Amino acid sequence: MSEVDGLNRLQFADGADAHLIGGRPVTGNAGFEVIDPATGRAFALCPDASRADLDAAVAAARAAFPGWAARTYEDRRALIAALADRISAAADDLAPLLTREHGKPLAQARMELAVSGHHMKQLSALDLADEVLRDDERGKVELRWHPLGVVGAIAPWNFPIALAMHKVAQALYTGNTLILKPSPYTPLTTLAIGRLVADLLPPGVLNILAGGNDLGAWMTAHEGIDKISFTGSVATGKKVMASAAATLKRITLELGGNDATLVLEDADLDLAAAGVARSGFYNCGQICMAIKRVYVAEPVRDAFLGKLVEKVSALKVGPGSAGGMDMGPIQNGPQYEKVKAYLADALARPGAQVLTGGQVLPGEGYFIEPTVIAGLDETVPLVCEEQFGPVMPVLSFASEDEAVQRANDSRFGLGASVWSTDETRARAVAGQLMAGTVWINRHGLNESDVPFGGMKESGYGREHGVLGIRAYQELQVVSRPVG
Q: Which Pfam families match (predicted)?
C-alpha cells in the first residue's frame, strides 16, 4: 500500500494533484497533508516529489534551456504576459483554495493572485539591453548579459503566489528555465497554477515540484541547477548559502527582517498610525518587511499610541473564508507556537503594558488577537527577534541619535521607515538607518521596478528592478581593438 493509500481519509485538491515536469502532470506515489490554519486540521493531500522527480525536472529544464534562451526578450515577455493574464483571470476560482491553505481573508487572496499577474508584466517589461562600456581610441568594450541556465526557486508561505511568480517572471524573462518549489505549508494553489502553464510555455521551461525540506536541500545541492533564488528565514537562508557553495551556484537570498519605524515628534500622527497599523498587521503580520518595532518620540508617545490602538483594535479577526475579515489565523502550527511563546514571554516582563489584544483566541485554529505592547526594551525577544506575527512592541525615544542607534542595533537590516512632516529631516534620518529600503511616511511598498533586499543578515543580493533581475544573468565582456 502506498503512502497516499494510507491517507485515504483525504483527497488531493482538485487541480492541485500533480507536479509539473516537462510540461506534463506527474503525481508520484507519495503525499503529505496540507493543514487549514483556520481549523488546525488537514483538509487535502499534496503530492510529495522524490529525488527522481527532481532529477527529471532538472533534465527537462536543461533540455528546454537552449531554445528558450535563444528567444528574444519580446517573445519571452509575450508568453509571461499571457501567463500573467491567465493567473489574474483565474483569481476568483483560485482564491478559495489559497485562503483554505494559507488562512488569509478571501479578498486578500484574490488581490494576491491579481497583483501577481500585474507584477509579472512589470518585471518582464524592464529594459535589459546590452551596454557599450566605451567606444574610443582604445577600442570598443561591450557588456553582454547571458542567462545562467537552470534556476531553482524556493518560495515562502506568507505570500505563496506573489513571491513565487516574481521569481518565475525574473528567471524566465532573462532566458533561464526554472524549477519552482512552493512551501509545503502552502503548495496547492501553486500546483493549480501549473495547469495554466502546461499548454502555454514550451515543455520544461517552467517545472513545479511540491515537497518538504528534503526537496529544498536536494535543489540547493543539485549539480544541474545553476542558481537558487530563496525567500524565507535567515536560518534556512544560511543553510542554502552553505549548500550552494559546493557547486558555486549563484544565489539570491531575501531573508527575514525586524523592521523598525521611527515616528518623530513632527510626524502626521494620523497618517503614521494608519500606516503602522496596516504594515504591522496586514497578512497577520507575516510579511518580511512588516513593521515589527515601533519607536516613538516621547513628546508624542501618548497621542500616537491612542491613534494606533484605535486602528488596531478595530481589526476584525476570523476565518479567511468568512466575510469582512481584516486578519486571518497565523499560517502554520510551528509559527503559531513561536508567536505564542514571544507573547507569553513579553507579558511576563516587568512593566509590560498590553494596550490592545494580548489574547490567544479560544477554539480551533491558529488565531491570536492583534496586539500592541508597550513597556519593553531591546533585551526582550519580541523586540530583538523577528516575531512574524500580529504582536507589535512600541518603544519611545528621547532623541533622533538614540532612535537611530537603537534601530540599527540589530542583526537584521531589511527595511525601516521614518515619519515626519519635514522632508529634509526625514531624509537625514533615513540616511543613517542600516536597511536595504527606507521609506518616508509609508512602509512596505514593494515595486517591481525598484530593487529590493536587505543588509546584514536580512539577505544577499537584490530582487526586482534592473539591478535585481541582472542577478539572473551572467555578465560577459566583449572587447575589440579600434577598426
A: Aldedh (PF00171)
CA 382/CA 339 separation, integer angstroms: 9
Sheet bearing 291-297, strands edge to edge: 353-356, 371-374, 391-397, 291-297, 259-263, 415-419, 437-440
DSSP three-state, residue 75: helix
**What's the whole-number average pLDDT of the chain?**
96
The DSSP result for 340-368, as a single string, is HHHHHHHHTSTT-EEEE---BPSSSS--B
**Size of the chain in residues:** 483
- Cell 534562451 belongs to which residue? 69
pLDDT for the residue numbered 30: 82
Question: Can you read off the three cell numbers belonging to residue 352?
Answer: 509590560
Active-site residue, from 112, 254, 369, 386 = 254
254 catalytic, yes or no?
A: yes
Name 47's Cβ contacts closer than 8 Å, sequence gap at least 6. 12, 17, 18, 19, 26, 27, 28, 30, 31, 191, 210
Closest CA to 153 of 71, 86, 209: 209
Cβ neighbours for 123, distance < 8 A, ≥ 6 positions apart: 166, 169, 170, 173, 448, 464, 469
pLDDT at res. 9: 55
| Cell representation of residue 211 | 515537497
Question: 24, 19, 18, 15: which is closest to 180 by C-alpha?
Answer: 19
Q: Are 54 and 215 in contact (CB under 8 A)?
A: yes
Question: What is the arithmetic mean of pLDDT over 84-105?
Answer: 97
* Spatial CB neighbours of 39, under 8 Å, sequence gap ≥ 6: 364, 365
Q: CB burial class (10 A; 0-12, 13-18, 19+) of residue 5? A: exposed
Per-residue pLDDT band for 10 (boundaries 50, 70, 90) equals low
pLDDT at position 6 is 41
Encoded amino acid at 341, one letter: A
Domains of the chain: 3-255+459-477 (3.40.605.10), 259-447 (3.40.309.10)
Distance, CA of 186 to CA of 164 (rounded, Å) = 11
Q: Let me know: does 151 contact 176? Beta carbons within 8 Å.
A: yes
- What CA dihedral angle connects 409, 411, 413 and 417, to 10 degrees? -30
Q: Is residue 207 helix, strand or coil? A: strand
Query: Residue 459: CA atoms inside 13 Å, Cβ hemisphere, count?
Result: 29
